[in-house]
Each structure stands twice: as C-alpha cells, then as structure tokens.
Amino acid sequence: MSLLPVEHAITKILQRVPPMQTERVALPQAAGRVLAEAMVASHDQPPFNASAMDGYAVRARDAAPGASLRIIGMSQAGAGFAGVMGAGECVRIFTGAPVPQGADAVIMQELASVNGQHVRFAEQPQPGRSIRPMGSDFAVGQTLVEPGTRLNGLHLAVAAAANVPTLMVGRQPVIALLATGDELVPPGSRLGADQIVASNSYGLGPLLAPYGRIVDHGIAGDDRAGLTARLRDMFADEPDIVVTTGGASVGDHDIVQDVLVALGVTLDFWRINMRPGKPLMFGTRGKTLVFGLPGNPVSALVTAVVFIKPALRLWLGAGAAPGRYWRLPLAAPTPPNSVRRHFMRAQLVHEETGTALRPIAEVDSGHTSSLAQADMLIVQPEHDPGQATGTMVDAISIGQF
Hints:
This protein is α+β, with helices and mostly antiparallel strands. It has helices at residues 6-16, 153-161, 200-208, 224-236, 256-262, 297-316, 368-372, and strands at 22-26, 39-40, 50-51, 55-58, 69-75, 89-93, 105-108, 112-115, 118-121, 131-132, 143-145, 166-170, 174-180, 184-185, 196-197, 213-220, 241-245, 266-270, 274-275, 281-285, 288-293, 326-329, 341-351, 354-359, 376-380, 392-397. Strands 7-4-6-5-9-8 form a six-stranded mixed β-sheet, with no helix packed on it. It has a six-stranded mixed β-sheet with strand order 16-13-17-21-20-18, with helices on both faces.
C-alpha cells in the first residue's frame, strides 16, 4: 500500500468535519471560545463627550493666560454637571465625567491656580483638548470583533464595554481519548518487567483541551474482547471525536484497526508519508470522527498537531488553515531528509539577529524529553538535501491555537 501524502490526508479529514454548530454563552464562560457571529456595537462609547483627565472644563476662547474664570459646579463620573456653562465660567471635572454643555476643552488641574471660586490657567487650550469625543472608542453598528476570533480577555473587555452580556460561539466537541497496549501502566505505578508508563493521553489532553471537552477513558490492553467492549462503551456515549493511541501498526498485537472496523468505523485512510507518525488511521462512525494515532509518544503528539488541530479549528469556525506555517530562518543546519516528509522538532530561539529555529537532532519517535524541549515542528520536504544556517524554512507552532 502506498503512503498517502500529508496534504491529501489533511484534505480528507477536513472534508469529514461537520458544519459548525453554535451556542450562546455568558461572558465569563466565553474566554478561549471561538466567536461565531460578529460582535457589533449597539451604543456609542463613550456615550457622551468625556474628560480624559482631572481638571477644569472650559470654553477655550475664555481661558487665556491670566484670565479669571468662575467655578460654577462639578462634573464627576456618574454625576455630570446638569447646567449650561456660559462665558467666563468653568466646571471642576474629573476623568471619565461628561463634559458640560458649553465647554469645548479640559485643562488639567496641574495648570490651574485656584482662588476660592475662581481659577486662572497658565496656558490657553485648543478646542477639543483632553476630551474623548462621543463614539471615539466605538460607534453604533461598528464591528468590534470578527467571527472566527478566539476570544481572550481583551475581546471580552470590549464586549462588556459594549454592553454585550452573551456571545454566540462555536460548540466545542467532546473528545474521547483511549490509550492501548498491554505494556502500559498509569503514572505513579510500580513498574514491573516489560512495562512502561503511559504518557500519550497526558500530552494529548492538554494539547486538545483548548478546542473541546476531553474525556479520558484510560488504558485498554491488547485483548480483542476487552478492547472491543471498551470502544463499544465509548461509542455508546456518542462523542464527537474518538482518539486512540497505539495498536495502529501491522504487528500481531496491533489490533485497534480491526476492532474499529468491526465496530462500524469506515476507514478513510491508513499510513501517511511522514515521519514521525506513518501509521496514522482516520475514519468515521456515524457522526463521530475517529483518529487512530501511533503509540510512540512523539508520533502521537506530532500527528495530533499536524492533523487533529486543523480539524478542530474548522469544527469551531476558526478556519482550518492547514498551511498555517511560520516562515523563519534556521539557527543551525538541517540534515538531508528521506522519502518521507519530516516534522522535525525545533526550539524557537531569540538571537541578536532575530528569532530563529534551532533543530533538535533527536529523531527517535519515543524520545519524549526532546519533544518537551520543542516549540515548533520544522516541515522538512521529501528528499530535502538539508539546509544551511540562515535558510528560511516552514514550521508549525506546537502550542499555537
């Protein structure tokens, strides 16, 4: 069986992602979610001409140096001056307070000399000085945040300022994880002979959690009956996405593919022209997307970054962007590549000449400590002869949404 090119595999996966579903959530629950509808202002901000500082609201033409103006009142945030300011008059004003009718400038208090109910100023202001005009932040009908944006605290602050209590966001999928292998034991176990500690789900859970609700189903052995029962129970919960790790190759104990097919999974492909991560499976069972990732930890996490994350972005309405590559120079040379595309571990380094990628030489797909040092995956093309220091290359950010 020939190996499927990476781009073809991504295309097949994205074709199976269902149309975005939405839900409305309150602002406190919206952080990290993807906006489904444009956030539009329904009022002007500020809703009135507001003072930008503490001082005195004046008519600019009256406030010549040495001129004495009479203080007729006060305007403060939440309690503006109700009257109309006339010639030779001014109003004590505080930051954020409405500028009184008749005033066209604010002079900071440090430039004022007060004597009882009168005040003089050291300099004459231009009209508009220290005034935030009504609607200068945003105006009615203005789009404040575009759909497809992953919402952070800055977006939610403007939503609150715009008096938007809830937002329409993409519905997050339920993502069910299952690690497989007789050799696996959970962290904290006393290791027996021929056992290793399971780590894949502990990496995949946090990696995929920004996109959906993670349900970890633990570890299943390489027993056909037991694995069948475990996966049948998982499918009974109707998760949106099932991700298994291990048992995806062709060994006598690699039974995950057979069990998935027996349970009604239609496989779209198996085996990708890449390293690490060649034995990747993908298919569907009803509405559920099914990913069978390799068992080696580096392979599992790299394939999740390359294939699952674009699908989840599309699911949420953020755009799949399978080509969301960074373009950065190499801080050290890369070796020649083979027939398979290499997603090479690399560190993002900041040098005097700028930001660059330092390749990590380790290529073992079970070498987790090297992956823990990586920020990026250099995308090394098939048959690449190797590139010199300073060459611009494509890379994928491991942690980027």
